[in-house]
Amino acid sequence: MNLQAMKRTAVPLHAEVAAVLRHQIVSGHLPAGTRLPPLRELTKELGVSRMTIVHAMNALADEGLIKKRSGCGTFVKEVEVPRRHTLDMKAEMSQIYAMVNQMEVSVRRGADAIEKSEDGRYFRTMSRIHTRSGKPFCVVDIKLDDRVFERAPDRFANEIVVSVLRDIGVGVERARQRVTISYADFALAQALEIKVNSAVFRVFREFLDASGSLIYSATLVYPGDLLEFKVEFSTE
After folding, report:
1. Which residues pair with 204 in a beta bridge?
2. Residues of the chain with CATH 3.40.1410.10
């Protein structure tokens, strides 16, 4: 990974490393007690000097976010995670389909796997990068009921899952979606070809059947400058 090429202009390298870890800690993605990777792993993964990592860790320690334990490593401390205010809105399922129809994307396939859920059901997991005009548009982590996947395996493997679900007539009784604003860590910045710590939209989506069982879920991450949400409120 070439972190030097991914960092924002005029931002010191150690500040970018510290900012990524800071975002992950205060957002709760790195919970209290998490052991951070050793310095040698971070220097190798990010392609930066040991001193860069040391400066970043010192900054986080000074802020009270991490604590170094001699002979054990560096751990995330207990911090207050800011509470988000939620704006609940209703929308028609057709709006999701309409949004997907407007996308001209190709799918770069990632690794697929099968996992067993706690209730004994099997799900196909897929990691993908959707592209538009040859450029990364969205990073997607998908979880799909394997029985549904087997109804159209070739299509699910190569097309947008939501479109295939609609086309093969999968009964979706309920759907929900949550959108938050986050920041690109090292892996996301590399996948989306954006700068580290750039703003991103993180979308979590679920489709449920009539019994309330999960059919499909996905976490989608879009660069902050490629997506917008438009809401029209009724005054009646």
Report:
1. 178, 219
2. 93-223
For residues 61 and 67, is the Cβ–Cβ distance under 8 A?
Answer: yes
Could you give the CA distance from residue 16 to residue 23 in angstroms, rounded to a whole number? 11
Residue 196 to residue 65: CA distance in whole angstroms: 20
Tell the CATH topology of 93-223.
Chorismate lyase (3.40.1410)
Which of the listed ranges 82-86, 177-181, 230-234 does the model predict with the highest average pLDDT? 177-181
Task: Tell me the CATH number for domain 3-76.
Answer: 1.10.10.10
Contact yes or no for 214/206 (Cβ under 8 A): yes
Question: Where do the CATH 1.10.10.10 domains begin and end in the chain?
Answer: 3-76
Question: Which helix (DSSP H) or strand (DSSP E) does residue 141 occupy?
Answer: strand 135-145
Structure tokens at 58: 């010192």
DSSP 162: H
- The pTM for the full model equals 0.81
Q: For residues 92 and 218, which has the higher predicted lDDT (pLDDT)? A: 218
Written as six digits, the tokens of 99 are: 């949004």
Structure-model confidence comparison of residues 31 and 71, the more confident one: 31
User: How far apart (Å, rounded) are the C-alpha atoms in residues 146 and 116?
Assistant: 10
Tokens of residue 72, six digits? 């054990």
Partners of 129 in beta bridges: 108, 139
